Amino acid sequence: MRCEVVAIGTELLLGQIVDTNSSWIGEQLAIAGIDSLFQTKVGDNMDRMVATLELALSRSDAVICCGGLGPTQDDITKEAIAKVMGVDLELDDELAARIELMFSSRGRRMPMNNLRQAEVPVGATAIRDPQPGTAPGLICPVTWNGEEKVLYAVPGVPREMQELVLAAIVPDLQRRSGDVSTIFSRTLRTWGESESGLAERLAGRIAVLDGSGNPTLAYNASGIEGIKLRLTAKGADEASAEALVAEEEREIRAILGDLVFGVDDETIEASVLKELRAAGERLGLGRPLTLGLAESLTGGMMGSRVADVPGASDVFRGSIVSYASQVKFDVLDVPEGPVVSLEAASAMAVGAREVLGADVGVAVTGVAGPDEQEGHPAGTVFVAIDLGPLSGEAGPEAFHVPLFGDRLQIRQFTVITAMNALRLKLLGSARDPDPFGSDG
Amino acid sequence: MRCEVVAIGTELLLGQIVDTNSSWIGEQLAIAGIDSLFQTKVGDNMDRMVATLELALSRSDAVICCGGLGPTQDDITKEAIAKVMGVDLELDDELAARIELMFSSRGRRMPMNNLRQAEVPVGATAIRDPQPGTAPGLICPVTWNGEEKVLYAVPGVPREMQELVLAAIVPDLQRRSGDVSTIFSRTLRTWGESESGLAERLAGRIAVLDGSGNPTLAYNASGIEGIKLRLTAKGADEASAEALVAEEEREIRAILGDLVFGVDDETIEASVLKELRAAGERLGLGRPLTLGLAESLTGGMMGSRVADVPGASDVFRGSIVSYASQVKFDVLDVPEGPVVSLEAASAMAVGAREVLGADVGVAVTGVAGPDEQEGHPAGTVFVAIDLGPLSGEAGPEAFHVPLFGDRLQIRQFTVITAMNALRLKLLGSARDPDPFGSDG
């Protein structure tokens, strides 16, 4: 089964909008085991759209057209599809009634050209989006050189497109391909090991998976988001596919341990908040451990990322962004002296905890570049964690981490390294918090 | 002159990487007045690459191939181009020497397959990147159905691709199209007026420009980056094109005044830092005015964006991220009471200035959502600016701004609204700092 994607819109060719829809659809097709060999962008031009759709039909079994379904005159995807099918457009009465109801329920008069959205090519089926007022998708069967093929149309708005592709188009493609199985996919997110290092640790599992072919395991190195491992299984129904994934997830987690920090869209900050809540529970406090930050080179990025997690306010107290050295001395009570150092990081962590009234203090200081500072090159970063009274007499722990990249990358890696170090500490992990092998 | 873009790489079809290169190239072609009617993505497969290049040549005068130039076995763009040209590959001795030198100068032995990067199709010209060690681009003239056409190849790494397209490919395309003119383009960045509002203000200029056709003016609404106005002129040489743009820029600035905050890649934070330096100069301080922030709902995002401007350290002291109310009371000396209020914002601005030892304090407090707080819905935001002794007896100024969108958008608009309010204050502007028409 081969399916192409055609993205429609002159604004895509002019670079006014980046076509992320095709990439997303390509990923879903890959997960579902459907080959996708070409993706094309074409402008809002009837002849070129028809030529592009006909070429796609000549080399694939199915084509997904994305965009050009709106109510304005330059939205001509349906007309182009009807031309390829050799049919006319007709009004779908139920769709028309839905659209009229949407306007009247808001007390508005419907502009007549909105009825264009209720027209479908003869022989096509509208996919009704659960959201009223959005453009419906289309399933358009077509006979091409004696073969039964299919054209799909979805709106260009990513959220609407994604709903229709997952709910209707991928299942329809699977049915047509004679594949009655259901796909389930889960991503394990890791931090602290390279792609080749993970492959080495998982060599045994990879051999087993290569043998069975179900589930499958794919890597996706995504820089500051760590390395993602995607497990995908096919089953007779969703429950059995999910069970296969869950079983393999247990095997992989048993090998990787705390290298795995989250699942699917979970960020490392979200995982830290979860561990702070769990630690408060474990200590019998009846509340989460609270977190205070002190930031230098990151300028507030660490706080911003923590605050970005919905519901962070039960844990997150705040952050002292001490960009100027004098602010470190005055507000955080850091002893005067070099500020790119283990000692300064430790004092900042203690200061953050005390000034912000938090249980846990985390601090970062270092050189984002491009210029060096206090004789240290860009990428010299120190991280410290202070648990205050919770650590007994131990006091703050600090470590050096040498980072690489441009100014933004160094700041991003600093945030993730610090958050991961705190996560490991809360888990009681013995793992070195510096994934690059620190000398500090 | 028609030029297509072909992006090469199986990872693009699988959605592992979003193809931003084609969009960027499409934009450059549009600026240069070259039509681009199709963009195609194809995997690392010889037959499909050759078919795609041949189709592109059949309907366009030029084709830019992006990606597949690396040293590994699945990088076969050059082989595919040679096949389309009907020629062999040959070693370019100068390129080979450059690559060997790059390895030897780092004391490393060159793996033999790196020499593949020095091969070019017979009859093609290598475009030498000024950076040693990167893959060269290619200009490959080809006769197609009796017409002289051209294939270009560039690496998929965005920075390398962009250099080669701007320095060699766009000028080569213009020369081939018989267009001896040079293009110059400048973007004016605005904040505080809608797209239709700008169009209304500029109606007179737009009529003049539509009449002359040179320079041209294009809008680009980019959400949190404000609305961009791109001026593009053609001239006999760069100086005359730039002069045309500069002349029109003066006309537009005379109409828009302080709605324009920056040029090209300049952010609103960078513009604020510039104005703080200018104000220090104006006041005869011999140093910039320094800036201290207090943030609640933004969690550190405002500080992070300010610190992201290279060289911010002469101005930026730091930020007190007082996410918890108690931190506002304890660290910033905000009077106990409602924290989503004009009064709390004012006290936070004064506190930030005093605690951080800055000349200017800026504070934001409000509700990012999704839940309401103190009875205020998500999007209720208060901004305050305090100039301390510099304002005489005036004290802090605060205003309410109602914002819309999701949690992230509300936080981003909060940062920009606050930075823009400070910019307007430093400019002595009488403009309302709330672009949406505040009631506060």
Quick summary of this structure?
Chain A has 14 helices and 17 strands.
What does this structure look like?
2 copies of one chain form a homodimer. By secondary structure, the first copy, chain A, is α/β, with parallel strands linked by helices. Chain A folds into 3 domains: 3-176, 3-Layer(aba) Sandwich (Molybdenum Cofactor Biosythetic Enzyme, Chain A), CATH 3.40.980; 182-263, Alpha-Beta Plaits, CATH 3.30.70; 268-426, CinA-like (Maf protein). Chain A is 39% helix and 23% strand. In chain A, the strands form 4 sheets. Chain A has a 6-stranded mixed sheet, sandwiched between helices. Chain A has a 5-stranded mixed sheet with strand order 14-13-15-16-17, with helices on both faces. In chain A, helix 3 (46-59) packs across helix 4 (77-85) and helix 10 (268-282) runs parallel beside helix 14 (407-426). Chain A starts with a strand and ends in a 14-residue tail after the last helix. The model of chain A is unreliable at 436-440 (pLDDT under 50). At the A-B interface, helix 2, strand 2, helix 3, helix 11 and strand 14 of A face helix 2, strand 2, helix 3, helix 11 and strand 14 of B. Strand 14 (316-322) of chain A pairs antiparallel with strand 14 of chain B.
